[in-house]
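pinned: reference chain
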Amino acid sequence: MSNRPKHNLAKLIAIDIITVGRVPLVMLLLIFATAMGVVFATHHTREAINHKDMALQERERLDNEWRNLLLEENALSEHSRVQALAKKELDMKRPDSDKEVVVSLK
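pinned: its structure tokens
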């Protein structure tokens, strides 16, 4: 067996805090509160960065979709396509030149 005294470190710290006064206890509480504040702020910062990254990804996805829709709109509104659909689906045709009427505004 060793001749080391058996002391409980937590018990010694508690006795020191009680006997020395309130200043160490207040300092301990302030340090703990500050540490918790740092943890809380770090957590919220990480959440905000995560939300920002998700929003940027969503914006990029929507930008790609917008570009695709513009391309589709341009393809669907080409004059030759509209003219072919008018002939095929609506049985429309260009009027003969003798049936054209020109209206002029005075």
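why pinned: The radius of gyration is 40 Å. The chain has a mean pLDDT of 87.
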